Amino acid sequence: MATMGEFMRKKVAGRIGILSKAPEPVLVSLEKATYPLFVKDTDPEFAKRELEDKFYISTALLRLVLKAYRQGSPQVRKTLRYFVDCFLGAGPVDFSLSKSEYAQNYGEDPPTFLVIAPTGKCNLQCKGCYAASSPFINNSLTFYELDWILTHKYKEWNSWFTVITGGEPFIWRSDGYDLIDIAVKHPEQIFMVYTNGTLFNRELAKRIAEAGNIYPAISIEGVEKETDERRGKGTYAKIMQSMENLRETGAPFGISTTAMPHNAELLISDEFIDFYFNKQGALFQWIFQYMPIGRGPSVLMQVPPGVRKKMWEREMMLVREKHLFIADFWNSGVFSSGCIAGGRSGGYFYIDWNGNITPCAFVPFYTHNIKDFIYNGKTLSDVLQTPLLTAVRKWQKSYNYKKPVNERGNEIRPCFIRDHFKKSHRIITELNAKSLDENAKYVLKDPEYYKLMLQYDVDCARLLDPIWENLYRRYQNTNIAKAETINASTIPAPTK
């Protein structure tokens, strides 16, 4: 029997244009044919349910690519053909080569991508911003520094995917370059850019379409009421105009949403999904449950554990049945085999506008700065050997990563800092890591914050661990409804 890779190279490589026009029954038939190649009844590392989850998000990604091809400009289509063929091993570049070289030297694979915030400056000043960005922050990476990072990630690791955040990335300027100039200079990269979506006039949208390798992820809080309440009056109207400009020029885009108690269920409602995916043309949705860091951190603004559980159920349905690429940074841990911070294979680390290196954009603590590596003849691979990143990867391996199925920790609550705050707090403290700002100092030092985060972890564990035990670790191919019937009170709280 052919392997999954062989099948996809035969059926998909070189055929994106044809598949983009395929009717729904053809895509369903393709998915049915690939299912037994991807999902095995027995696997030493993954339960069948987890393999299914990975399969369905992969097929959702394929549909995302096909939709981007249908809607995209000529350059977007050309770029997609190149990257899909390379990813499937049928293109001019072997994406696995440098990974193998790194693995030979260090005994593990390098990260798949990086998250970079080239500037902290933003034209908005949103409530609860994780980065506490504002118009008054002037610190930025230089063109040379950003270019060095992008050049070395590809050269050292064959890393072709880069996430850009901020601040507002489309404000960034250095030595006559803006972000689109950087993307054009690095056609070997695909850039997903988190943006507030207010700056896409017709000219900017056209440049993005002509670049072909930029995918804005536009921040939205719901519809007009929710968005303007958090981001400022008139923001929603600007976003709607920006989406229109992007659509009309063939520039691809998706949405990024922050879930809080007041809007969590709205963000995955039928009306919301229909409006943004079908009417506005969004390709994907990232869901970030509010993390109490950044501007005015408040543990009470987190999605309550019961709502988080409902979100997981709904999100899985949207991926499995609606074939939408919707990923929740916390709830979707099964897609990525848990936490991907700290430079883990399949994951990333984060570099902020000052050059500080943190394990994750939501872990605002660091021990090193990228400029010390750039200007002292070192490499990105050297960055991965720094103590905080190494400690995070060590924790991942002790919790779930690469462990046998019956020993894996719960990947529905995978987060190093949010779901395992006591352990992350201890590691950060023992390494004497520095705080990115005063808000991060509060996160680390405030006793009430510490107490509330630990209680949140216990409450989430009591609701989510029964699902993990029933659907994943026990190899039972049962449905979600059965998991709900388990009496959560009989499940012991995790050891503190």
Structural topology:
Elements: H1 4-11, H2 16-19, H3 24-38, H4 48-71, H5 74-87, H6 97-106, E1 113-116, H7 143-157, E2 161-164, E3 173-174, E4 177-178, H8 179-185, E5 190-195, H9 202-211, E6 214-220, H10 224-231, H11 235-249, E7 254-259, H12 270-279, E8 285-289, H13 305-320, E9 326-328, H14 333-336, E10 350-351, E11 356-358, E12 365-366, E13 368-369, H15 370-374, H16 380-383, H17 387-399, H18 421-430, E14 434-435, H19 438-445, H20 447-473, H21 480-484
Parallel strand pairs: 1-2, 1-10, 2-5, 5-6, 6-7, 7-8, 8-9
Antiparallel strand pairs: 3-4, 10-11, 11-13, 12-14
Helix pairs in contact: 1-3, 9-11, 13-20
Summarize the structure in words.
- The chain has 496 residues and is an alpha/beta fold.
- The protein folds into two domains: 1-88, no CATH class; 100-399, Aldolase class I (TIM Barrel).
- The chain is built from 21 helices and 14 strands.
- It has helices at 4-11, 16-19, 24-38, 48-71, 74-87, 97-106, 143-157, 179-185, 202-211, 224-231, 235-249, 270-279, 305-320, 333-336, 370-374, 380-383, 387-399, 421-430, 438-445, 447-473, 480-484, and strands at residues 113-116, 161-164, 173-174, 177-178, 190-195, 214-220, 254-259, 285-289, 326-328, 350-351, 356-358, 365-366, 368-369, 434-435.
- The strands form three sheets. Strands 9-8-7-6-5-2-1-10-11-13 form a ten-stranded mixed beta sheet. A two-stranded antiparallel sheet has the order 3-4. The protein has a two-stranded antiparallel ribbon with strand order 12-14.
- Strand 3 and strand 4 (177-178) form a beta hairpin.
- The longest helix has 27 residues, at 447-473.
- It is globular, with a radius of gyration of 22 Å.
- The chain starts with a helix and ends in a 12-residue tail after the last helix.
- The model is unreliable at 476-496 (pLDDT under 50).
